[in-house]
Amino acid sequence: MDNREIEDSNKQNDVVKQHKSTASQAYFNFIKSNLGIGVIVLPFVTYQVGFLWSIVLFIPIAFSCLKSSQQMIQIADDMNTDNILYADIIRQTLGSIWAHILDIAIILQLIGLCIAYLIFLTESLAQSLLQIGIQMSKLQCLLITLFIVIPLSFVRKIHFFHSTSKYGFYCALASFCIILYDCQNRLSFGNIQFSNLINFKKTFNYVGVAILCCEGIFTVLPIRDSMKNKFEFKSVAAQSLITAFGISIFLSLISSSTYQSDTQSIVLFSIQNPILEVISLILYSISLLLTFPLQLFPAVQIIEQMFQKKMVEFISFNDIEDNSNSFEESQISKNVASTCDKIDDVVVEKDDQIFEDRFLQIIIRTMLMITIYFVAYQVPHLSHFLNLIGSIFGSLLQFCFPVIVHIIYFKSSKSTKLIIQYVIIMIVSLLAIVLGTAESLKNLL
């Protein structure tokens, strides 16, 4: 390699590094990916299960989320491979079939979260317009959101949100502060009560929603890969998760104890002052809009890579087939190498753009958005839908897969502490999958 080639390579590396995030940017990104729609639905299900019982239930869920995330990061650090994804780890440990199953589960989970975000935006818009005397149907509000959500769904560069995620976080915090301010006003009149402390019957209405307060497993590896120093992310992730858990449980306990039977399925709707309610809805809508692409990105990434792989296989097969009858074996090898060069040209940095065929990108993302909008229109109740998504896909992807992969990858490690962690996480996930799913389906159907 001559000096010019070395110089060009260094320039390319500098450009890539400019797009990498710092530890603080990754911290805000990961908090935002965890502080999703589950946080503002959690007070409603907290009131259902009771003040004390919600704490007992949340602790093992938060512990399982923290440990499973750290397990995935530990595996990625040990592999020390650039642009590694959740499915790559599954493929290397469990095989291709399980990797495909995982991809499908991730797509369904993230689409489910985006549907929940869209339901919130639609209901928030309807509620805000109602405060000024304008009444609109759910369909009309969904169509209005098209003008904001659709452009965001076509953002192809995740580093675009490195600088904006902290502002989304501040918007979410501001809306939480409004809730606490409203609670404080009610407390001044002595409205706080602890009449509902434990209600075992509603346990599995709570678990799935609580799991979705820890929904960041899908962005663990992309955010880690987006950092300038990937090996810092383990501590950054732990700090982010603890912050997100603290906000979630504190807000749910205070608001559910204050609003009591007035607690709405979306806690922001419980605010008495109409002006504060609208402001809080706008702030949290901004926060979710900045999170929406972060949640959609891994799903789109997986689908585009599936298409990319099929196209690469098709190109390779055709090139070899066309030349197999007219060239010698050495010439075929050259064609294969040439094809590989073409493939390398197609595959670009995953953090910036996954797929060069813009037309096919537009088709994929358009079909995803049509699906999201259609399901959002059909869902009758947000909390039951979130509980279903969290119980099935949240448990599988956040808890089961990371534990199984970690056991296989570090099979030589058999410490008692690690085994206890495995057992706790698997018990939480299996109970949520079986009983949480059954409870959600009973309520939805």
Automatic annotation (TrEMBL):
The keyword Nucleus does not apply. It is a multi-pass membrane protein. Residues 19-440 form the Amino acid transporter transmembrane domain. GO terms for molecular function: L-amino acid transmembrane transporter activity. Pfam families: Aa_trans (PF01490). It is found in: Membrane. GO terms for cellular component: membrane. It comes from the Eukaryota. InterPro entries: AA_transpt_TM. Keywords: Membrane, Transmembrane, Transmembrane helix. The chain crosses the membrane at residues 37-63, 97-120, 132-155, 167-184, 204-223, 235-255, 275-300, 359-379, 385-410, 419-438. The keyword Heme does not apply. This is Amino acid transporter transmembrane domain-containing protein. It comes from Paramecium sonneborni.
